[in-house]
UniProtKB/TrEMBL annotation:
GO terms for biological process: carbohydrate metabolic process; cell wall organization. InterPro entries: Glyco_hydro_28, PbH1, Pectin_lyas_fold, Pectin_lyase_fold/virulence. This is Pectate lyase superfamily protein domain-containing protein. It is found in: Secreted, Cell wall. The keyword NADP does not apply. Pfam families: Glyco_hydro_28 (PF00295). It comes from the Eukaryota. One of its GO terms (molecular function) is polygalacturonase activity. It comes from Gossypium mustelinum (Cotton).
């Protein structure tokens, strides 16, 4: 007769458990339910944008879920502000269209998003091989530029973790007007001959932490540009590439200082001058911790 009493008990604990999970859990917006097709060919912009807009409109935590597979995606901008924490969860891989797309600024853009989490282990393939021959910037100062793989503009309090980016047409990641961003376990790869493929570039940003990452590119591993402060770089492997650069400052008028840059426990291998560089005399670096470890 004992189970007569136990039964409602189990029933209620299951009920409790289910409702608890729902309350705790995030709402998931699977791009496949929005019609995305993982054949590596069809442009999935519409599905991604719709999933993003629904997730962004959600209070609490919402997840744009990209299941395993290869999704071709044209240039798209994921704009905020969003109402809660928005996660861009990449189990699958994203592939840019082939070709140059000259003067398209960005492949993927995140703008005005607070509390963005990008993670999942997926790969962003910029298909740069098909674009690099169109880069004329080595011989023309007013050259048309190729798109940056992922551009974060005015993104705050966010994390980028366990993402791989390969063969970007231009830089892999770019940050402008961003604050409190943690980047960890990212792998940014492009061949040493690929032009202007900076790993991470940032300007007018503050409180950026980059750790446990590997950056091998044809240009700067990390470029810290005008008006940027409190940058903490640790446990980063850099090379090949131009190294970690504070600079290109002084090229334009009205550029602001860079200060508070800390580089610790990094390995630079096969980089220009094997060092941290400050590109010219108008570059004021106020704090400078350089702990070189192989
Ligand atoms: C980034 O990391 C620092 C140090 O661990 C932590 O204090 C901060 O809250 C983190 N920021 C985000 C947005 O995760
Ligand atoms: C430096 O790079 C070379 C060439 O890629 C590689 O063979 C070597 O193992 C690297 N050294 C370290 C310490 O990572
Ligand atoms: C190495 O550093 C020197 C001195 O700062 C500079 O003149 C030179 O251009 C640098 N080389 C490269 C390849 O960046």
């Amino acid at each position: 007769m004992a189970h007569k009493n136990i039964f409602p008990c189990i029933f209620f604990s299951i009920l409790f458990c289910v409702s608890f999970t729902v309350a705790q859990g995030a709402r998931t917006f699977n791009i496949k339910s929005y019609g995305a097709i993982a054949d590596g060919r069809i442009d999935n912009r519409k599905a991604f944008l719709r999933a993003w807009m629904d997730a962004c409109d959600q209070k609490e935590v919402s997840i744009v879920y990209i299941p395993k597979g290869v999704y071709m995606l044209g240039s798209v901008e994921f704009a905020g502000p969003c109402r809660g924490v928005t996660m861009f969860f990449m189990k699958g891989d994203l592939r840019a269209p082939r070709g140059a797309f000259l003067n398209v600024e960005t492949w993927l853009g995140f703008r005005y998003v607070d509390n963005l989490i990008m993670k999942g282990g997926g790969t962003l393939d910029g298909q740069g091989q098909s674009a690099w021959p169109f880069n004329q910037c080595h011989k023309n100062n007013n050259c048309q530029t190729l798109p940056i793989s992922v551009k974060f503009d005015f993104v705050t309090n966010s994390r980028i973790k366990s993402i791989r980016s390969i063969h970007s047409k231009n830089a892999h990641f770019s940050f402008f007007g961003c604050t409190n961003i943690n980047i960890s376990n990212v792998e940014l790869l492009a061949p040493d001959y690929s032009p202007n493929t900076d790993g991470i570039k940032m300007g007018s940003s503050s409180n950026i932490r980059i750790s446990y990452s590997k950056i091998s590119t044809g240009d700067d591993c990390i470029a810290i540009l005008s008006d940027t402060s409190n940058i903490d770089i640790s446990n980063v492997y850099c090379g090949p590439g131009h190294g970690i650069s504070i600079g290109s400052l002084g090229k334009y008028t009205n550029e602001k200082n860079v200060n508070g840059v800390s580089v610790r426990k990094c390995t630079l291998n096969g980089t220009d001058n094997d060092s941290l560089s400050c590109s010219n005399s108008r570059c004021y670096v106020q704090e400078y911790i350089w702990n070189f470890e192989f």
